Amino acid sequence: MSRKQQLPRPGSDLGADDTGCTILHVDMDAFYASVELRERPELKGTPVVIGAPGARGVVLSATYEARRFGVHSAMPMTRARRLCPQAVIIPPSREKYAEVSRGVMEIFQTFTPEVEPIASDEAFLDVGGARKRLGPPAAIAEMIREQVVREHGITCSVGVANSKFVAKLASQHCKPDGLLVVPAERVVDFLHPLPVGALWGVGERTEQSLVRLGIRTVGDLAGVPVATLQRQLGQAAGAHLAALAWGRDERPVTPHAPDKSIGAEETFATDVGDPVKIRRELLRLSERVAARLREGGHVGRTVSVKLRRADFSTISRSRTLREPTDVAQTLYATACDLYTAAGLDRDRLRLVGVRVENLSPAGEATRQLGLGERETGWREAEQAMDRAARRFGRDVVLPASLVRPPFDGMAP
């Protein structure tokens, strides 16, 4: 565990009032290790280290059982072996981690477009605009945690606060697999007992300098005049730390990087082997992806499906269309063809997903009809469904095959 992660638990009950606390920091727990343990459940509860096993390798991730021995990320593997010789070493599978990271970020996007990824396994979310639709921030945080477990088999910790800085500290406090709300009126109570090294911008050298001045906690620093801090640390750093010590952090959640792909996944409540039900779920996902494409003003040319068996082994298939599309029926037909071609009709599946890549602005796309080809009218019909959904809710108009019987094995 790194120095920045060695934070004490809050000394008192902060309460659960999330009024005004619209910022979430969501952080996967021991991300790489957790992904590996999905396929090796017999190792749960034991020290596991992810990293190249050679003499020059470094630790990428470690389970909390290994961290108790002092193992942490970026540590040389030779030192990790000395600290915890009984640890199981697993070489990294970066493509696997990237796939799970992408799926987790997509879950965040289903709750709010205001998502700022800051690493492959963590992000800030501003859920202020989602409260009317989904409920208070703490409830949204719990829904996110449940969906991450259901769809990806790993856990995450969520901090809920009125600023990015405090939300991130809160998520660190409640690890692993926790949720912590820091009420707006209790921010100072939460911050001031912490070691001064918990503040963003306090590196090891700065912390040593502050400790030499008798400043050991955030509360100590809060009591120092700003001018004194600026003389010791510089104008910008002194002012920055003085503001953080009182919980002042005005930075907004800033979504960045344009969409490179849009997708949706569903994990079944129980593994499903019926191709009819799987194709019905592919239709549901195609409808969802197409709606997101149209909402964002995108069309896409490459359609892919993800098919995960009960043992978490995953197969992906893709096809590039002749022309870009935002039509659900086109996505669905392609997804079904890819599912058939994958040869999994007799396999029980845990998860299915549909994704569209190779995106371009819808306004720049042209539709070239072949000789004798007629317009299908699907785009116009789906645009009408979009208008109805904006007014009455997404489920008010559905294809007939998506009207579920009382129970069909799908996750809620």
Quick structural overview:
With 412 residues, the protein is an alpha+beta fold. It has helices at residues 31-39, 64-67, 77-83, 94-111, 131-134, 137-152, 164-173, 187-191, 204-212, 218-222, 226-233, 235-245, 275-296, 328-342, 378-392; strands at 23-28, 48-51, 59-62, 88-90, 115-119, 122-126, 156-161, 179-181, 261-272, 298-309, 314-325, 349-361. A hairpin with a 2-residue loop joins strand 5 (115-119) and strand 6 (122-126).
Q: Could you list some keywords that capture this structure?
A:
about 400 residues; alpha+beta; 12 strands; globular; disordered N terminus; five-stranded mixed beta sheet; four-stranded antiparallel beta sheet
Rg, alpha carbons: 24 Å
Q: Report the count of strand segments.
A: 12
State the helix count: 15
Fraction in beta strands? 15-25%
Mean pLDDT: 85
In spatial order, strands of the major sheet run: 5-6-1-7-8
How far apart, in Å, are the first and last alpha carbons?
36 Å
Taken from the alpha-carbon principal axes, the silhouette is globular
Secondary-structure element order, N to C: EHEEHHEHEEHHEHEHHHHHEHEEHEH
Major pleated sheet: 5 strands, mixed
- The helix fraction, in percent, is 25-40%
List unreliable stretches of 5+ residues.
1-12, 369-374, 405-412
Based on secondary structure, the structural category is alpha+beta
